[in-house]
Give the backbone structure.
Amino acid sequence: MATDRTMSTTWKGTLMEGSGTIHEAGSGAFGPLEVSWPSRADEPNGKTSPEELIAAAHSACFSMALSAGLARAGTPAETLDTSATVTFVPGTGITKVALTVRGSVPGIDEAAFVEAAEAAKVGCPVSKALAAVPELTLDAALA
Amino acid sequence: MPRIVREAAVSWEGNVARGSGTMSARSSSAFAEIPFTLASRIGIPEGKTSPEELLAAAHAGCFTMSLANELTTAGTPPERLEVRCVVTMDEVEGKGHQIVHSELQADGTVPGCDEAAFAQAAEAADAGCPFSALIRASATVAVSATLS
């Protein structure tokens, strides 16, 4: 079954001098969020950006895929702490996503955890959607 | 050009079916501890976000900035742009869940710009938006544009 998620943005003015609002999420979970070019390309100053939202999406998707894989292997996770760092070069595009995960997983050794994390990195839907990113790295270890 | 880095963090507890997570914006602190679960990702959101909702926010934001830039470059800077983005995830035979489509609908108030020029700017914005270029690895992207 297909799942749709909808977001809306309002922008006023030019790219360099204008500003935008990402309206409250359809789910009600967050927003509205302010965005601008200076806060995207320079210091955030409390404003999010498309790249930060991609980082949130990727870290969430990866964590769910990893928890599913660990449970299938008979070693469900207690806690997974994941961060994603997205690198954007204006004029070039999004050049890198770096995933870091630390897991508390009873009954698993380091090698099996790293293997499960590598599988989640390849298999999660956001990784597949971002497969054209030149560099996707993973740093996985038990906490 | 300088490299721009943005970070977000997630904490997940438990298995995928019954566990839950929260996500936070580490670079900007613009959002924190937003909840998400598998049930709310593939079913009714019930106040929780999902990776696909965040991608819809990212794509709407990225495309809107790209469109503002195209219109300004063309000599017709926008007064106001309204962009809606719908991201669809589906189960693809043999490939599991995939993000299969992103639908962008742009509505603009742009002095001195006609429908044809606005549609052309929207096409150029899609071509120039870094996120549009990426998501085509697994999804189709459709753009429609109208002046209000």
Observations:
- The helical segments of chain A are 37-41, 50-72, 110-123, 125-129.
- DSSP finds four helices and six strands in chain A.
- Chain A touches chain B through 90 residues (CB under 8 Å).
- Chain A has a mean pLDDT of 96.
